[in-house]
Amino acid sequence: MLILGLQGSPRKGGNTDTLLAAFLEKAGQAGAAVKTIQVARAGIVPCKGCGYCETHGTCVIADDPMSMELFGLLRQADLVVAATPVYFYGISAQLKVLIDRCQTLWSRKYIYKLKDPLAATRKGVLFSVAASEGRQLFDGIHLTAKYFFDAIDAQFSHALTYRGVESKGAIRRQESLAADIDGTIQKTVLPLLRRKTVLFISPTGACRAPMAAAVAQGRFGDRIRTGYAALRPASELSAAMILSMQQAGVDMGYRTPQAIEQALKGSTPDLTVAIGNGIDNLPLPGKQTVKWPLPELLSPDEAAIDGLRLAIETQLDALMETFE
Ligand SMILES: Cc1cc2nc3c(=O)[nH]c(=O)nc-3n(C[C@H](O)[C@H](O)[C@H](O)COP(=O)(O)O)c2cc1C
């Protein structure tokens, strides 16, 4: 369970930074994995408006942190926190650069009709601070957040906004701050953390494990949070598997095979599903482990991959009948 915090103020240790850090500290104590992106220092290149993503499904700017890392983190995140100061009644330019680049994810969703496996459960939260007391201070920011969260397949669940907060550290004097953070943890973090975790492991993590994790997440995401891992991670996911999932409307873009430690992030899964031969003889992490004897596809043609997906669905149905 990953919370991704997008810190949109260029002012280090400022009010936005302080608010986000206080929330993420509490969320970490509750058991979530947390990661902050200092957006102003991330080196994200602004959208060119070239339309490439609408005809290719990926961004033409392939070599900056957005394409190399941040799209992947947005896909892994269960909760995305967009945190920004009010700048001229809008979000900061720094955060807007990141949001505009998400036109690629908008294209994947609305032009390519692909659904992210976490779409049904991912949440979005907005934090914002402003110096003045203006009535409409956050109106524009709410609208931008609404359409940003929609593009990244997150349900806009909650906003914390503060007026009259100007000098560095002024946010700490907001009387409701601790209660607001606790309320946000209760409302958005704890329900996500209550789900059981299921890790799928296959030898190279390129096809069977990520496919099983995505299918399981899409079908049972309210009860479980899935992950996938490999004993010896391949360099990329199987292209045939990505295509097969795309034909079923599932977006596997911006995901890569992961080593077991990377997938665990220090936690122990409630259940580990070992897929393939030989893997079950190894010591596996997990409070429970089961084996799925789905063989490796030697010729991953379309029919074979589609057959694998059906076999995974059958195994999953049986598993979820007994898994509490
Ligand atoms: C470029 C700029 C524009 C701002 N525009 C507004 C504004 O329109 N309304 C407002 O109330 N405060 C405005 N502020 C004040 C900031 O929102 C406020 O000081 C906030 O606490 C800064 O957050 P930070 O410490 O996270 O950077 C602006 C500040 C800057 C630097």
Task: Walk me through the structure.
The chain is α/β, with parallel strands linked by helices and 324 residues long. It has helices at 15-30, 52-56, 65-76, 93-101, 103-110, 139-151, 177-193, 208-220, 239-247, 260-264, 302-322; strands at 2-7, 33-38, 79-85, 123-129, 155-162, 196-202, 224-230, 271-275, 288-292. It has 2 domains: 2-193, Rossmann fold (3-Layer(aba) Sandwich), CATH 3.40.50; 196-322, 3-Layer(aba) Sandwich (Rossmann fold). The strands form 2 sheets. It has a 5-stranded parallel β-sheet with strand order 2-1-3-4-5, with helices on both faces. Strands 7-6-8-9 form a 4-stranded parallel β-sheet. Strand 6, helix 8 (208-220) and strand 7 form a beta-alpha-beta unit. Helix 9 packs across helix 11. The longest helix has 21 residues, at 302-322. Residues 9, 11, 14-17, 85-89, 129-132, 134, 137, 165-166, 168 line the site of flavin mononucleotide (FMN).
Give a brief rundown of this model.
With 324 residues, the chain is α/β, with parallel strands linked by helices.
Give the key terms.
324 residues; Rossmann fold; alpha/beta; binds flavin mononucleotide; single chain; four-stranded parallel sheet; 11 helices; globular; 2 domains
Q: Characterize the biggest β-sheet.
A: 5 strands, parallel
Q: Which molecules other than protein and nucleic acid are bound?
A: flavin mononucleotide
**What is the overall pLDDT average?**
95
Number of helices: 11
Q: Cα distance, first to last residue?
A: 18 Å
Number of domains: 2
Total number of strands: 9
Question: What is the oligomeric state here?
Answer: single chain
- Taking all Cα atoms into account, the compactness measure Rg is 21 Å
CATH top level of the largest domain is Alpha Beta
**Percentage of residues in strands:** 15-25%
What share of residues is helical? 25-40%
Largest sheet strand order: 2-1-3-4-5
Q: Assign the CATH architecture of the largest domain.
A: 3-Layer(aba) Sandwich
Give the full name of the CATH homologous superfamily of the largest domain. Flavodoxin domain
Q: Could you say which overall geometry the principal axes of the C-alpha atoms support?
A: globular
What's the CATH topology label of the largest domain? Rossmann fold
Order of helices and strands: EHEHHEHHEHEHEHEHHEEH
Low-confidence stretches: none
